[in-house]
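Reviewers asked in the last cycle whether our approach scales beyond single polypeptides. To address this, we selected a multi-component target totalling 574 residues and predicted its structure end to end. The input consisted of the following lines:
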Amino acid sequence: MIWAKEETLPRKELEMIQLEKLKKTVAYIYERVAPYRGKMDRAGVKPEDIQTLSDLRRLPFTYKKDFRDNYPMGLFAVDKKELVRFHASSGTTGKPTVVGYTKNDLEMWLGNVARIACMGGASAQDIVQLSFGYGTFTGALGLHGGLEKIGAAVIPMSSGNTKKQIMFLKDMGVTLLVATPSYALHLGEEIRKSGLDPETDLSVRIGLFGGEGMTEAMREEMHRIWGKDFLCTQNYGLSELCGPGVAGECQELCGMHINEDWFIPEIIDPKTEEVLPPGERGELVVTCLGKEALPLVRYRTGDMTRLFYEPCKCGRTTVRMENLSGRADDMLVIRGVNVFPTQIEEVLLSIEEIGPHYEILVERKNRLDVMTITVELIDDRLLDSYSKLSELEQRIKAGLKSQLGLATQIRLVAPYSLQRFEGKAKRIKDLRKDGL
Amino acid sequence: MKQISVFVENRPGSLMEVTSRLTEAEVNIRAVASFDTPEFGILRMVVDDPQKAKQELTRLGFVVRIYEVMGVELQDEKGNLNHMLSILADGQINVNYIYSFVIREQKAPVMVFSTDDMEKAKEILTKAGVKIVTDEEL
Ligand SMILES: [Zn+2]
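The resulting structure, written as structure tokens, was:
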């Protein structure tokens, strides 16, 4: 089922809608958001210079850093009394990236999530187990609202507690699972270990996955574990843009349809910042159309992908983005949580018993991400007893947990045992091949 | 008596790295103990020249610290260790760890232990007639 007629418009009509909304958005952001007005003035562009869609590339970019520089609400375009919701995600350092919504923004957001749920095969008959972590992240409440909008019944399960997850899946006759793909694989294996066969003993037939990328190898594995008829799609979003609902895979599995009447995508070369022709791989840049609380123009997502404009067999005419192929920066996605090495660095630098050098190792063990951080011990006073070293280890773990919201493994090594780098350090080793 | 503590990673050869560096520097190891976890360990040693040992190892990139520990002579007879520990227990001295000498040419065996209350331990042991070994006597 196709939720909105905007998903099937001829490109000419769609572009007319986009241009009209773009003009309004640029005028709105210029008038209401001082940091953005400053950027436009410095670039010598006025709202009335935007006459065609290709004029978009004359506008300055917005970066993740702008959120930090204007923390918490300096990029907001409305008064606080207009806001009805806040969410927050990781920032590049200690402060989170805070986003806000007006009543209309929520309506728009959840409408877009409803479209994506329908693309992935969801309907009013579905019973949904929502296994994203609730809280300030946009994933859980976004999917929750969008699925309710199409009439599905949602169990707000949250993440973790695998035993309870299995009990609900079985007893409630759950038909649709929302999770990160790696957690879905882990859960499926646990179900098999418990003696149940997901294919015959459970009614789960749809998976809507997000929070991290799903490779084709993971999709194949998903069929092996959950059954050959399991319909699994992934969707894409960023809290800065609204949350989930920016793009999603349809059942043709040929890329994620972008809700183009709300989001204009561009692909740029992240180094030269030039816009690349359709079909070329580069960094995804998104302009939000018609957002009230937090309008964003040319937001640098950091995600690398390609765009395909040919209409899809599913009947939708909206552009499709290919599965993500890495990052333009060094952000990591660990158990669905965005992690910036700068966040880790901030914690390590605040602990004086260890040196400033570190290495991050990411592996997938038993389907779940494990992050090990190696640091050098420099303080000889800790050699007094093992318990002092152990206390240090616990203190580093606790600092990282509160900064990242994730458990990490710590490895203490002797000084000078980590490799020294000149220039940009290669401190990250990601061993998650194919996501398996 | 002085002890040096060295941080070592728990991987093959890491203890040998320390001992061979000391041998090269002509530092003699009198007693050694290692305490370890799956990831790392602390190597504790009594050597004939702790300052030189620390200097050498630090220069080579090890984390090293010198501590004050207690060395006591044991009578060369059955039950001696138990006897020593009961003196300390009766005197309410808490022992963090103990180990003993590897070599002591022709002399009585020595037990090394660490406690947070050195003064009191010294007093109790002296009263019980136990010989306390100093660095000079090594
Ligand atoms: Zn399609």
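The first strand of chain B starts at residue 2 and ends at 9. We regard this as preliminary and will revisit it once experimental data from Aim 1 are available.
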